[in-house]
């Protein structure tokens, strides 16, 4: 990503928050046949000292990515949206795009069949607990285990990350407040989620 010191995020806790709130990830691999990208949900393992992700690939994506043979890039995309310059004071005519994005790097570890099924079960339970009548892989474990054979589980312990939270921190307080109001409205570019993320971001000390 472009090096923009104002928006750089180095706190692992913020990266973990972004992953928890936006678990749908893009995984990019530099394979022997060229670049390959896939999209899967990621679940964060709770480790104090490392950022560790677990997920699964549907076959044959594991072979296409040559999983376990090299480092991969995992892209987590949080709230993002267009910021109109019509929300700025007169004379400030350059619009922008606010976003929260993390690039995570690590080499996948292939999980055993049993650990893959455990991770799949936990992934389903993690998302199902929000619904009124949650289901579980244990409801039909034999059938679920048969389906799971079409997947390959993986763990990615993150070696390094590069993250940006660009939320108009370079603007004055009254301008940021106006942007948040516009994002919270029912206009074309409304985004309550982006508005909430803006309220979390720390303004630039150069303001």
In whole angstroms, how far apart are the ends? 23 Å
The CATH top-level class label: Mainly Beta
pLDDT < 50 runs, ≥5 residues: none
Strand content: 25-35%
Mean pLDDT: 95
Q: Which strand order does the major sheet show?
A: 1-10-7-6-2-3
Query: What's the total count of β strands?
Result: 10
Estimate the helix proportion, in percent.
25-40%
Explained architecture:
The chain is α+β, with helices and mostly antiparallel strands. The protein has one domain (5-170): Roll (Pnp Oxidase, Chain A), CATH 2.30.110. It is built from six helices and ten strands; from the N terminus they run E-H-E-E-E-E-H-E-E-E-H-H-E-E-H-H. It has helices spanning 12-21, 61-64, 113-128, 141-148, 173-183, 192-200; strands spanning 8-9, 24-31, 34-41, 43-45, 52-58, 72-83, 96-106, 109-110, 151-157, 160-166. It has a six-stranded antiparallel beta sheet. Strands 4-5-9-8 form a four-stranded antiparallel beta sheet. The model has no long low-confidence stretch (mean pLDDT 95).
